[in-house]
Amino acid sequence: MHTDVTLDILYRVTMSLGNTLHAFEEKTRTAFQTRELEREREARQRRQEKTSSNTAAGSSRTKALSTSARKPKQLNLKTYKYHALGDYVDTIQLFGTTDSYSTQPVSFRLTPC
Asked: What pLDDT is attached to residue 53?
């Protein structure tokens, strides 16, 4: 169970985490040359080969060769998991902690009287 004090602490820590993540992103974006993982490259290549299977054999071969290198990749803070952090305190205030309710759909079955 949360109190006003613990929710205030959570709010402040969440703000601090967000500011720290943004500062980390700013400092590391130019400091490191990162690339996608080998398995990400392979998955991307498989997807491209699958979508290019409808084109001519020669052009798909050229396209596959041009996309075989690992692409540059940066930290992406524009994802839902980072965006949702700011909603935790409000959600807890409105609905309580996640162990006090279920998100499972409820189905009602009407029976004749």
From this structure: 82
Confidence of residue 55 (pLDDT cuts 50, 70, 90): low
Rounded to 5°, angle at Cα 25 from 32 and 27: 60
Dihedral over alpha carbons 7, 9, 14, 15 (to 10 degrees): 110
pLDDT at residue number 43? 94
Residue in 22, 3, 28 with CA at minimum distance from that of residue 85: 22
Cα distances from 62 to residues 52, 59, 99, in angstroms, run 11, 5, 54
Tell me the C-alpha distance between 7 and 21, whole Å.
21
Task: Evaluate if pTM is beyond 0.70.
Answer: no
DSSP state of 67: T
The DSSP secondary structure of 51-82, one letter per residue, reads HGGGS-HHHHHHHHHHT-SPPB------SHHH
What is the C-alpha end-to-end distance of the chain, expressed in Å?
Answer: 42
